[in-house]
Design brief:
This protein is α+β, with helices and mostly antiparallel strands and 241 residues long. It is 39% helix and 12% strand. Helix 1 runs antiparallel to helix 4. It is globular, with a radius of gyration of 20 Å.
Length: 241
């Protein structure tokens, strides 16, 4: 981000992109009523709300980006904060208060090592085929690992490679971004972040290239038709790869 840009400029740009070209020009500065309505919708919704869905509720003339940035600033120092999670926005407890919920939160199930490695490969190398996952990991990919990731909603079939056999390509979902508190794929930890977290051996870091994933279609990728990107489609057609 350009240091001369105002805070949250990237988030504002993503919101405005969701409304398409010319969307910002027809929206007026938000009224206090619009801000209060958005606050109520975000608190009561239970699930993250996309900027576009919020705009449909608030009205076509409301500057949704300005509403969200105002609420984000208002709640920045409070016990709950407005955060961007994948393609949606939600209120959640401030990070420094997480200890208050340590005894009441249900412990998440640990992913098997094979599924965790598969998720990491898909996250960083998407769009990626099953054969490419196997090549990167150096071992055969079990059906169970992908089925588990599909079942919990962190991975989805996203297209087909324009190569012989037209193998399926896989990518992560908004649920994956939301679970790990990522605003977008650009927020995935890079090499320096992984090294700082102790997840990357400093001796290996110089030789390792941490790729950046593709959110849009790759040049050699063909989008799946509606319905074919469901988890059941992969399970039914797994043998066709």
């Amino acid at each position: 981000m350009n240091p001369l840009e105002p805070p949250h400029a990237d988030a504002r740009r993503r919101i405005e992109d969701a409304f398409g070209e010319g969307g910002e020009a027809r929206r007026a500065p938000p009224s206090q009523d619009a801000i209060r309505a958005a606050e109520a919708l975000l608190f009561a919704g239970g699930e993250p709300i996309s900027a576009k869905a919020l705009g449909e509720k608030l009205g076509r003339d409301v500057d949704v980006a300005a509403v969200l940035m105002k609420l984000k600033a208002d709640y920045a120092a409070r016990g709950v904060q407005l955060v961007e999670a994948g393609a949606g926005w939600r209120f959640q407890s401030a990070p420094d208060l997480s200890g208050l919920f340590a005894e009441t939160r249900e412990a998440p199930k640990r992913l098997p090592k094979a599924a965790l490695e598969t998720l990491a490969v898909i996250a960083y190398h998407q769009p990626v085929t099953r054969a490419e996952i196997e090549e990167i990991r150096g071992v055969s990919l079990s059906r169970g690992s992908l089925e588990l990731l599909l079942e919990i909603g962190w991975v989805r079939p996203r297209g087909r490679r324009r190569t012989p056999g037209r193998p399926l390509t896989f990518g992560t979902t908004d649920a994956f971004l939301g679970h790990f508190g990522l605003a977008s794929l650009d927020a995935l930890p890079g090499k320096d972040d992984l090294r700082g977290l102790g997840l990357l051996d400093p001796r290996a870091a110089a030789e390792l290239d941490v790729p950046r994933p593709e959110e849009g279609l790759a040049p050699d990728e063909e989008k799946l038709s509606d319905g074919d990107d469901a988890a059941s489609f992969f399970v039914d057609h797994m043998g066709e790869d």
